[in-house]
Amino acid sequence: MILPEQPLTDAAILIVDDNAANLALLEAILEEAGFTHLTSHTDPREALEAWQAGHFDLMLLDMRMPHLDGYAVMERLKAQLPADDYLPVIVLTAQIDETTRQRALAAGARDFITKPFDAVEVVQRILNHLEVRAKHNRQRQNALSLSQNVQHQEALLLQQARDLEYFATHHPIVGLPHRPTMTRRLETLIASGTLPLAVLLTRIKPDARLESLAGYDFADRVFHRLGERLIAELDEPQNAGYWGSGSFLALIQGDDEKIQREATRLLRALLAPLELDGYPLSFSARTALVQAPQHGSDAATLLRRAMLTLRMAPSLDVPHLTVFDPVIEQALQERERLIAALREASHARQLRLVYQPKVSLTTGKIVGAEALMRWHHPTLGTVPPLRFIPLAEETGLIADLGHWAIEEALAALVRWHRRCGRLVPVAVNLSPRQLELLRLRGESLDDHVHSLLARHGLPPHCLELELTESSLMQQEETALAELQRLRDLGISLALDDFGTGHSSLARLQQLPVTTLKIDRSLVKGVTGNARHHALLGSVINLGWALSLNVVAEGIETVEEAEILRQLHCPIAQGYYFHRPLPEAEFAALL
């Protein structure tokens, strides 16, 4: 195809004339002019085949030929022309009458070359036409390129529209319908009366070790494979979806027996071992099953209860269905009400401290006190510490409550001193969570305590902070360094509930503690069991060997107190001596 930037002599020309002499003459004229791509035919039928098979820029066509005249040739060629093209034909004719010329032009001819041939005229007419043809070819080429670009852009827009439509309803990685889509699907099934109906929610925990080893997209590909399994197992694939955070959702229709059977089958498929990238994988899962109408008649309620059940379900590597229980929801609602009440209690002065005396087993005198937090709610009544302290730790309230407890205990100590003339050391329980929260805030407990002691004008030795054995053994170096700073200030640190955890003697020697508090579990039963007696004596001796103060907790009988005296335990506390007392009663006792 000739283009404007090419020499016109590069054009491909087809010459059709039943007279071989004419063909030879034209070829000679054109070769002399520099044309090199010439094709000649005496049979117009062969010329048609050649034109259709090749890419010619120009046809020199005789009008009077056997089998097919020039008019018939042009008619057949025009039938095959694209809408944006024309016949590049120059007619070879000896007839110069007006009728012949008009008929040829009507058939599609662009120009005439008369016989006998004038070489200069032949070449000039051909060059003139090829110049026009080259420009026409360029326009067609530009139009085609533009059309292709438009088609490409249309295809891109269409694909983008398809992608947007897909991602509007599906998770982009797992390839299953996402949360909004599955919510709408569940609403549709309920509205159509498709009951009974179950929602099965399954959370697969990704293997963080393999995710780090094989790449961050590893878990995504694992979930994609699990999604394929889920679709393959369901009779209606549109009832499978991805809820997010490793959770798959399936909607199961049928009676209770079918729901149980289908849910178990789906779980087996999800938990089956999988190999990916050469890594063998096994899975454990939490599952939740809620059913309509017994567990709810609308999608929002069913899905909320499924999430609640999933949260409470155990993680197992065998198919196990955790079915929604209304007791779980009631417990959670009560827990949330308790959290809200605890937030209010910290501002409404519903919390108070009581003080359990510590007694010297040698003299019987009160040598200290442990401050214990109590909560009396106006409608809930007395809330046990075992219920509200874990909630305070979970919600972060423990940091403020712990600070308040230390300050309140120190203030009480000052009031006792004024009333009784005695400075009795007081112990306050310390939560590991309290230390953690203060670090997150950019604060430190030693700064807080030092400030409180200075405000109340008290020496450091009058305050003791107690941490449980299990929590203290698990503290990181940062927390232990902070406890050491407290110890350096002169504040006592007690290892509480000793005997309930798993202490290492080497670890115990490294801890900055000053006091060992023996748990009630080591004291209980000591009166009738020689092994208990020996064990209790060994623990007391261990405390002495480590130069620690020793305090026995939970003493309830005179026999227990007497055995502790015999074993040379210096200090004890418990109901046998005194129950925890309000501040005024403790002051009166002093």
Automatic annotation (TrEMBL):
Q: Which UniProt keywords apply?
A: Phosphoprotein
Q: Which residues form the GGDEF domain?
A: 195-326
Q: Which residues form the EAL domain?
A: 335-590
Q: Which domain of life is it from?
A: Bacteria
Q: Which residues form the Response regulatory domain?
A: 12-130
Q: Which CDD domains match?
A: EAL, REC_RpfG-like
Q: Which InterPro entries match?
A: CheY-like_superfamily, Cyclic-di-GMP_PDE-like, EAL_dom, EAL_sf, GGDEF_dom, Nucleotide_cyclase, Rev_trsase/Diguanyl_cyclase, Sig_transdc_resp-reg_receiver
> In the record, which positions carry 4-aspartylphosphate?
D62
- What is this protein called in UniProt? EAL domain-containing protein
